[in-house]
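Exercise 7. Given the encoded structure of a 164-residue chain, write a plausible sequence.
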């Protein structure tokens, strides 16, 4: 028994089939889903690199939908891979190539996300340091003996740009 998937635009789960044409259709649909996921990841990566984090957050909803569709189809591929490989070995080979491209896109996306997170944390630490300097350098609520200091530091007004 082999499986095929409905069109890449739908969210329905894969259905069983038993012929090479349906197996080929499943592989083509999965390849299109992988290509869609790669495109969304590349778009998100570009937006984050350009510091357009609000736009990148909007892309994440699309990424979730495509990733869910991919995971469903990948589950079918995992369970019926041997049968698909017998029916349409060329299509399965193409899927392997597309999967390698997806792995590369995911690696790049994760690297860019990690860099953005590091930059964000550094900015927050720097702002906190500046705020502490305005308060006379007092940044701790507790003293060296792990007891609360006599006069807790007053929080100075802090402003930040949410678009960053």
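Solution.
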């Amino acid at each position: 028994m082999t499986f095929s998937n409905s069109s890449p635009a739908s969210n329905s789960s894969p259905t069983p089939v038993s012929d090479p044409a349906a197996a080929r259709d499943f592989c083509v649909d999965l390849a299109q889903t992988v290509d869609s996921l790669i495109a969304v990841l590349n778009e998100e990566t570009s937006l984050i690199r350009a510091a357009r984090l609000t736009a990148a957050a909007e892309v994440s909803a699309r990424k979730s939908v495509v990733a869910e569709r991919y995971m469903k189809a990948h589950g079918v591929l995992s369970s019926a891979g041997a049968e698909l490989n017998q029916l349409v070995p060329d299509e399965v080979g193409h899927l392997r190539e597309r999967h390698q491209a997806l792995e590369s896109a995911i690696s790049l996306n994760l690297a860019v996300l990690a860099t953005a997170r590091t930059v964000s944390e550094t900015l927050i630490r720097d702002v906190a340091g500046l705020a502490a300097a305005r308060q006379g350098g007092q940044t701790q609520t507790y003293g060296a003996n792990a007891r609360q200091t006599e006069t807790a530091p007053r929080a100075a007004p802090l402003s930040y740009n949410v678009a960053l």
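Remark. The beta strands are 2-4, 15-17. Students should compare their own answers with the one above.
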